[in-house]
Amino acid sequence: MNSTNYHKQNGVFCRKALTLAGDFEQSYVSVRAQEQRLYPDAVLRQLPQLPHTHAAGKEWQIRKQSSRNLLRYCYRQQARQILEIGCGNGWLSHQFSTLPQAEVIGMDINFTELQQAARVFAKPNLSFVYDVFTANFLPYRQFDVIVFAASIQYFPSLHGILPVALQKLAPGGSLHITDTYFYASAAAQQQAIHNTKDYYHQLGHPHMSNYYHHHTLADLQPYHYQVKQHAPTWLRRLKKQTTAFPWIIITP
């Protein structure tokens, strides 16, 4: 990735005008550490494989299935230009980079984990970018697939982010939202907001609830979208497993 608007620091492309280490990042990284979601390099290399005994073991079983679906989709669509918004430690962007002829960009405003991602997953067809996602993000680039994996909840408004992302799609491209819960009613949404405030208060970071947003299925109505499950119905019944996280595909 080459652009005069970026300089490279510890393997990460950083937009020159962006200030590092804001309040959100510091609090977010602290919360991630308390949740045991900051992984050593050796563990990160193995993701989405994680022992069931780990505190986040069940979560990674879900992510393993969702990432497989995304990889199959990108392979069938012969996606070459892939952008992951909110890539964190880069494990999923790395998975995308294993696809034939894929060029992958993982972006985030979490410089701490981006540095680890660049160190652990360094390869020619994978770049990590420290930036905010706006219409000015890599203005001359378009993508076949744009992914929000467990990240759309950090954007306050779908109407503020999805139209911008749709404009960044190449012809025939698609947006994908995974590993995020969408609420069926306003009452369920309000209860979730209350639970989130309690959760972050218990962790000692009550202000983090201001950065975590709860979207409803109704918020998706203005867009051309479909909701898919990560496993066929017969398999979910056989394994007696369900996931509250839908796989949402949005096209222009």
TrEMBL record:
Keywords: Methyltransferase, Transferase. It comes from the Bacteria. GO terms for biological process: methylation. InterPro entries: Methyltranfer_dom, SAM-dependent_MTases_sf. Residues 81-210 form the Methyltransferase domain. GO terms for molecular function: methyltransferase activity. This is Methyltransferase domain-containing protein. It comes from Filimonas lacunae.
